[in-house]
Amino acid sequence: MTSVEHSTVLIWSPELLRYDFGPGHPLAPVRVALTIQLAEAIGVLASVRLTPVPEPDDTLAAAIHTAEYIAAVRAEQPNLRYGLGTGDVPVFPGMHDAATRIVTASVEAARAVWTGGYRHAVNVAGGLHHAMPNAASGFCVYNDPAAAIRWLLDHGAERVAYVDIDVHHGDGVQAMFYDDPRVLTISLHQDGRTLFPGTGAPTESGGPHARGHAVNVALPPGTDDAGWLRAFHAVVPPLLRAFRPDVLVSQHGCDTHRLDPLAQLNLTLDGQRTAHAAIHRLAHMFANGRWVATGGGGYVLARVVPRSWTHLIAEAAGASIPPETPTPESWRTAARAVEPSPPQTMTDGAEPAWREVADGLDPADPVDRAILATMREVFPYHGLFVPNNVKN
């Protein structure tokens, strides 16, 4: 057990809000600001060690991105060759420093867990999982989860598992470790045939030296709490049990929510809260309790993101919030600048439940088809059996 006052660290500085593509862009920094305000108002921050972000370290991005691409980011000029200056990634002043600061925060979270004596670390401003080695993509300039994984590998971790629950495929992280058997990437997302970035099919399962180490669960539009949680529990725990990571890194995009304007899954806040708790448990079961959690997507700026990520911080701190807890009036006052009628409680009123795959898989069910496709593609590489109780 750690000797520090708290076993969980939250990496946070207001400077992280400088990652700002400007008015009207979906990835608005106010969603992060409102998360920290809600976590403070509801008392969660008393259960974590609040650690400021160190000064941005250029070498951390350089470990995963090409020198040419970093130079293009520094130039702060539109450059479509590198994905800069598009509607998704408009150029803004201070882009390199702002993006580097988020990378530094996620690496600091990894450092806190690997060598700093903490069990868990959270960076809600992170989770920019679409950035590629030589290009920006999908609101992401530098790929902070990949940088955290790279740092862990470079400092002695032999196996790192990455679990991505954003509605969009974690394509950038997958790409950076696609042929590295030391890394297991698992992404549960809306089917890429119906949503950006158009990738994440079950057949994307790893390079020649890492077969089965890229895992993709491509869920149909409309998947709700029960279907999503069924898929998660069917695929993630068995793979983590087989892989036995030294540390678990997770990305908690909350754009799976039924209100999110950029996607078509149908989860509730309560389903997301249940997912955060499941990942926490898996870190203790299979990764010696070492857990690095980041934020990600999420575009319902006041009603969803702050509540989901406050639940995440609380879960990591071992101070889970009863769903019926009222949101503090002081926070609602701040949130009204974004949402005229902020949520009154920390729940959507749902009670998530799901059927285990042991009850049988039905090929006529689109969620079960997605589960089966993933199992058949990757389970054999890990010595796992595909259930044979498939209904005819």
TrEMBL record:
Could you say which residues form the signal peptide? none
| Pathway(s) it belongs to | Ketone degradation; acetoin degradation
Spell out the protein name for this chain.
Acetoin utilization protein AcuC
Recorded hits in InterPro entries, A to Z, give:
AcuC, HDACs, His_deacetylse_dom, His_deacetylse_dom_sf, Ureohydrolase_dom_sf
Family label: Belongs to the histone deacetylase family.
Keyword Cytoplasm (UniProt): no
> Any keyword GTP-binding?
no
Q: Name one GO molecular function term.
A: histone deacetylase activity
Q: Which GO terms describe its biological process?
A: acetoin catabolic process; epigenetic regulation of gene expression
Residues of the Histone deacetylase domain: 25-314
Which Pfam families does its entry note? Hist_deacetyl (PF00850)
Question: CDD domains under this entry?
Answer: HDAC_AcuC_like
What keywords does the record list, in alphabetical order?
Acetoin catabolism
The superkingdom of the source organism is Bacteria
